[in-house]
Amino acid sequence: MDKERVLAMSRKENEYKDPYTMEIENKANLLAGDAMLTIVSIIFIVSLLVNGEPDYLMWSIVFVSNAFKLVYSGIKLKDKKQLRLGIGYTCLFLMSFIYGMIERIRG
């Protein structure tokens, strides 16, 4: 391949990947995760104080979002550590969801 063709292919691949935009999106995702964790923690504590029992379904939201993010990046980056963490978060999601649903059904 000649130099111009390689450069043209590279430009086409990176056309929509502005580094500044990607950095802003990554920072926004991190802040959104922190905000979600904070809100779920507050709702969990308020539920505990008002109802006298915790609502575990709230934590399933946090666990499932982390699970999907880690499993996806683990597969795409071929990173076994992230994949294992993603599987761990998936297990935490399933446990909190099932336990929360059982508690809701029992009433």
Q: What does it look like?
A:
The protein is mainly α. The chain has one domain. It has 4 helices and no strands. It has helices at 3-13, 19-51, 57-77, 80-106. The longest helix has 33 residues, at 19-51. The protein starts with a helix and ends with a helix. 10% of the residues are buried. The chain crosses the membrane at residues 30-50, 56-72, 84-102. Keywords: Membrane, Transmembrane, Transmembrane helix. Pfam families: DUF6442.
How would you summarize the topology of this molecule?
Blueprint: H1 3-13, H2 19-51, H3 57-77, H4 80-106
Helix pairs in contact: 2-3, 3-4
Pfam families: DUF6442
Keywords: Membrane, Transmembrane, Transmembrane helix
Transmembrane segments: 30-50, 56-72, 84-102
What key attributes describe this structure?
single chain; elongated; transmembrane; 4 helices; 86% helix
Mean pLDDT over the full residue set: 86
**Count of beta strands:** 0
N-to-C span = 68 Å
Spans of 5+ residues with little confidence (pLDDT < 50)? none
Q: Count the helices. How many?
A: 4
Strand content: under 5%
Radius of gyration: 20 Å
